[in-house]
Design goal:
Length: about 200
């Protein structure tokens, strides 16, 4: 059975992007895999709107043609996510959090009944059994520090939809010591390759 990777890049930079380089290298470790590419800079996603929210909360069998069309992109993004065995995400830290492009993707895939459901014990993710590797880069923010709101958030969101096997590969504090950061991340990528 073919292994499927959903490769998401969230960096606004299409050239000289550390996260794009790292995510591409992680994908390349799986040359036999089928790869679905979702480049959030090349094809920006819209913000959700009142029309989108109303369509999303309308029962499937009661949706108008306009509402179905409104949800089509979101449905496609969910299909990509459901088809993937592994997510590889290139995620820069912008102003201590995730880029707006990544937040737009999250808003469009967090769908009750599709990627999670509410139970009497609270929400339950519906995308269990998948793995995520998140390649993070930052200028000054140290991952895991009190000013890093990006990696805890992406872990939480992925866990919310059922993806709890999440590895963070961090080229953090690039403005402080890029050489040391890249050397550290080289070792992390090598370890991931050995574990695959």
């Amino acid at each position: 059975m073919t292994h499927t990777i959903l490769h998401i890049d969230a960096s606004a930079r299409t050239e000289d992007s550390v996260t794009r380089d790292l995510s591409a290298r992680l994908v390349a470790q799986n040359p036999e895999a089928k790869v679905i590419i979702r480049d959030l800079a090349a094809a920006p996603l819209p913000q959700i709107t009142e029309d989108w929210v109303n369509a999303n909360f309308t029962p499937v069998d009661a949706r108008t043609e306009v509402q179905k069309a409104t949800l089509e992109l979101s449905n496609n993004l969910v299909d990509e996510l459901q088809a993937a065995d592994t997510l590889i995400i290139g995620l820069p830290i912008y102003n201590f959090g995730v880029p707006a492009a990544m937040k737009a993707w999250i808003d469009l895939i967090a769908r009750a009944g599709l990627t999670f459901r509410y139970t009497e014990n609270g929400p339950k993710g519906l995308l269990e059994g998948k793995r995520a590797i998140v390649a993070v880069a930052s200028g000054g923010t140290k991952t895991g520090s009190e000013i890093d709101f990006a990696t805890p958030y992406i872990r939480h969101v992925l866990g919310f939809v059922g993806i709890t096997d999440v590895a963070i590969v961090a080229a953090d504090q690039m403005s402080v010591d890029a050489e040391a950061s890249l050397a550290r991340v080289e070792a992390e990528i090598e370890a991931l390759a050995d574990a695959a």
